[in-house]
Design brief:
The complex is a heterodimer of chains A (about 300) and B (about 260).
Chain A (H helix, E strand, L loop, with lengths): L1 E4 L4 E4 H18 L4 H10 L4 H25 L5 H28 L2 H33 L20 E4 L4 E4 H18 L4 H11 L4 H27 L4 H23 L3 H24 L6 E5 L5
Antiparallel strand pairs in A: 1-2, 3-4
Helix pairs in contact in A: 1-3, 1-9, 2-3, 3-8, 3-9, 4-6, 4-8, 5-10, 7-8
Chain B lengths: L1 H17 L3 E7 L3 E4 L6 E11 L10 E8 L2 E12 L2 E14 L2 E5 L3 H4 L2 H6 L4 H5 L10 H16 L3 E4 L4 E2 L4 E8 L6 E11 L2 E14 L1 H12 L1 H22 L4
Parallel strand pairs in B: 2-12, 7-8
Antiparallel strand pairs in B: 1-3, 3-10, 4-7, 4-11, 5-6, 9-10, 11-12
Classes of the chains: A mainly alpha (about 300), B alpha+beta (about 260).
Chain lengths: ~300, ~260
């Protein structure tokens, strides 16, 4: 069954889109990431114009992070205070990122910068997480006790001035690294056109030592606020949000996110991190292969201005 | 009454002065293509008739009819990837400032039967010659041809550029017909259709007509809202996203 998308100006298969968005929503709910970095390339592959794909996916990410955040909130697995701090820092970073995005685009190498950043980020974060979580799994197998997080045990750089207490996350840390890191994630997210959940989740886990069960909800909360703002921004400035495509993506996405969240809660912390690491590495390899192997079609066509 | 008679006389004189041995009459099967929710592309037909003045001598060469349909113009940028060390990066690029979003050309015979490559170039026959205007003439840039070929290949894969040799068929010695096949991805807007009749590489007659591709009903409303009420439209989309997200937690709350 095909339906015509009024903004993308093309027909698309309803079942295919719902199926794809359900799969991405599952991953999103499970890991507390937005999933935009998976959905956007899939839509572009199906022929949706890139501007419409990027803008419309923000609405889907807003919906699936909403459903995930509400579920986590009901389970008291969401640190609103930490989430608000991350959002505030993120908004500043996003604004700087949009400026950087425009100046990189003027140099004409935007796609290369995006592909290389994806490659480097995914490979570094993915392999670090994979090594750490595999080691943790091995320790669990052999029965040796790992390092347990105790309250009040914090790395030195969290002890900078302006300390704030985040009771839910058992975190008593300086606001400076938290806001700074959130701004960095917002910056990278704006340049790459993604929410940045896949950077935020590992950072909360490793750098801030937030408990795994609190990480997903808090990350989803921050993504929810950012992506709702992004939907408004894209609709108002580019008029490239396709509401018909958004409905299809949202229906699939929220259903997938519900099941994904359920599956995620049955995962052990270590297995959770192994799976997320494998996902990041796989996407990193996929993007890397495009840069490294001889392309089948060395030419590409992009539409520059509005048609006259 | 007098006035209209005078006008009729004027036109009669004007027509005889400009009259050529051949007159071309062209008709399109539709002048509006409507896009609804189940739109998956459209097919139009161009009908035409070449009327020959009885007094003139018959042509030695057969009629060659070229039907060209062009969609709204776009600024296209074609990039080519090259090897830099271990990486494949965008290197050279060419801009096609006024490239048609949709371009289809059909002919009665194969191009090579109609004349040499130079003839095709002079007469703007074929996709490549239409993309690179004949003005480029002597300083023909081989790089540009490479990029034009890539554009034709990529657009052609989506049926947005089509070259149909033998696409025009004569139903009677003077009546012909040619289909225009619009893929669903062809954009909305005005499309020009040009019909040219050649004989022995001499242009005998040329006619232009046009059709438009428009969205109707719900699709039209959505596109209009997105453009003229963009903030409200964005707000509605965002609220819908949050509403659906919340609804799913209610529906799925079992535990």
């Amino acid at each position: 069954m095909q339906i015509y998308l009024p903004i993308a100006e093309m027909p698309i298969s309803v079942l295919l889109i719902i199926g794809m968005s359900a799969a991405v929503g599952f991953v999103s709910g499970m890991f507390g990431i937005g999933g935009g970095f998976l959905m956007t390339p899939l839509l572009i592959f199906l022929g949706v114009p890139p501007a419409v794909a990027v803008a419309t996916v923000t609405a889907q990410v807003a919906a699936s992070s909403m459903t995930g955040a509400v579920s986590n909130w009901q389970r008291r697995q969401l640190d609103i205070k930490l989430g608000l701090f991350l959002t505030a820092g993120g908004l500043v970073g996003t604004m700087l990122g949009v400026l950087a995005f425009n100046s990189i685009r003027r140099t004409g190498q935007l796609e290369v910068v995006i592909a290389l950043s994806y490659l480097v980020l995914f490979m570094i974060i993915g392999s670090m997480m994979l090594l750490e979580s595999l080691r943790a799994l091995m320790r669990a197998r052999t029965g040796k006790p790992g390092r347990l997080k105790r309250a009040g045990q914090h790395p030195a750089w969290l002890k900078l001035p302006l300390r704030v207490r985040f009771a839910r996350s058992r975190l008593y840390a300086s606001a400076i690294p938290i806001l700074g890191f959130a701004a960095l994630v917002g910056f990278i997210g704006a340049v790459l056109g993604i929410g940045g959940g896949f950077i935020m989740v590992p950072a909360l886990l490793y750098l801030f030592r937030v408990p795994t069960m609190m990480v997903v909800g808090t990350s989803l909360f921050q993504i929810l606020v950012t992506m709702t703002a992004a939907t408004l921004f894209h609709a108002a400035s580019n008029q490239s949000v396709d509401i018909v495509l958004a409905v299809l993506l949202i229906i699939g996405g929220v259903i997938g996110a519900q099941f994904g969240g359920r599956a995620g809660r049955h995962l052990r912390g270590e297995s959770f991190r192994v799976l997320l690491a494998v996902l990041l590495l796989a996407v990193g390899f996929r993007i890397g292969s495009e840069l490294i192997f001889r392309p089948e079609e060395p030419f590409s066509v992009s539409i520059q201005g509005a048609r006259g | 009454m007098m006035r209209s008679a005078a006008w009729a006389l004027f036109w009669l004189v004007a027509l005889t002065v400009t009259a050529r041995p051949e007159t071309l009459v062209v008709s399109l099967s539709a002048h509006r293509v409507l896009i609804g929710s189940n739109y998956t592309g459209a097919q139009l037909a161009v009908f035409g008739s070449v009327e020959r003045d009885g007094r003139s001598v018959a042509r030695a060469d057969p009629y060659d009819v070229v039907v060209t349909a062009q969609g709204p113009r776009q600024h296209l940028l074609v990039r080519e990837k090259d090897r830099f060390g271990p990486l494949w990066l965008n290197n050279e690029q060419r801009r096609f400032g006024e490239a048609p979003s949709f371009l289809a050309t059909s002919t009665t015979r194969l191009f090579r039967e109609m004349g040499s490559e130079e003839d095709a170039r002079r007469l703007n026959l074929g996709l490549r010659n239409k993309l690179i205007p004949a003005g480029a003439g002597l300083s023909f840039d081989t790089g540009e041809a490479r990029f034009a070929d890539a554009l034709i290949r990529i657009k052609g894969a989506g049926k947005l550029y089509q070259e149909v040799e033998r696409g025009v068929t004569f139903l009677t010695p003077s009546m012909f017909q040619a289909p225009i096949i619009l893929p669903a991805t062809a954009p909305t807007g005005n499309y020009d259709v040009t019909v040219e009749v050649y004989s022995g590489q001499v242009l005998l007659a040329k006619q232009q007509t046009s059709f438009e591709v428009v969205q109707i009903g719900f699709e039209q409303q959505v596109a209009r809202l997105a453009r003229s009420w963009s903030l409200a439209y964005g707000l509605a989309t965002a609220l819908m996203a949050l509403g659906f997200g919340w609804l799913a937690t209610v529906i799925f709350r079992r535990d």
